[in-house]
């Protein structure tokens, strides 16, 4: 799969309903969450995101955590929550710097942000908050 198309992967209604019908095990929950992330329906992607976040809170296995973080980042990117997606990917890459899937997804997310002008706005917004904080701190010290 070409990296740019990773955000376009989709699962069918049949795949989702089949995943919902499976017994309630950890592995099946992860598979259901991944299927939901691939849905074309925003509410199902959000449901998959919530399920992955729940699994993350309960996880003690590194492999499960890595899978959950990757698919959470993908879900947030599909929902156009690019900042959240980048944050998750950067967190994953801090612990696994050679993770090619995370690097590829991060590149796709950054391209989308740049294409939509959000990367620049995020940097400008961050700089504005920093400058505002400095000005407020300066005014407080003068008093």
Automatic annotation (TrEMBL):
Protein name, per record: Mitochondrial fission 1 protein
TM regions (residue ranges): 118-141
Domain description: The C-terminus is required for mitochondrial localization, while the N-terminus is necessary for mitochondrial fission.
InterPro entries: Fis1, Fis1_TPR_C, Fis1_TPR_N, TPR-like_helical_dom_sf
Domain of life: Eukaryota
Any one cellular-component term (Gene Ontology): mitochondrial outer membrane
Record-linked Pfam families: Fis1_TPR_C (PF14853), Fis1_TPR_N (PF14852)
Coiled-coil annotated spans: none
Family: Belongs to the FIS1 family.
Role summary: Involved in the fragmentation of the mitochondrial network and its perinuclear clustering.
Keywords, ordered alphabetically: Membrane, Mitochondrion, Mitochondrion outer membrane, Transmembrane, Transmembrane helix
Organism for this UniProt entry: Caenorhabditis tropicalis
Gene3D superfamilies: Tetratricopeptide repeat domain
GO annotation (BP), single: peroxisome fission
Membrane topology, record value: Single-pass membrane protein
Compartments it resides in: Mitochondrion outer membrane
């Amino acid at each position: 799969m070409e990296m740019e198309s990773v955000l376009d992967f989709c699962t069918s209604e049949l795949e989702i309903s089949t995943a919902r019908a499976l017994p309630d095990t950890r592995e099946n929950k992860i598979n259901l969450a991944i299927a939901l992330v691939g849905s074309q329906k925003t509410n199902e992607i959000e449901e998959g995101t919530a399920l992955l976040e729940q699994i993350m809170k309960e996880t003690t296995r590194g492999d499960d955590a890595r899978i959950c973080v990757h698919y959470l980042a993908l879900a947030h990117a599909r929902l156009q929550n690019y900042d959240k997606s980048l944050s998750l990917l950067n967190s994953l890459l801090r612990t696994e710097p050679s993770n090619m899937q995370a690097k590829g997804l991060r590149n796709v997310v950054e391209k989308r942000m740049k294409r939509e002008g959000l990367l620049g706005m995020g940097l400008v917004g961050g700089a504005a908050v920093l400058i505002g904080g400095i000005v407020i701190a300066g005014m407080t010290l003068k008093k």
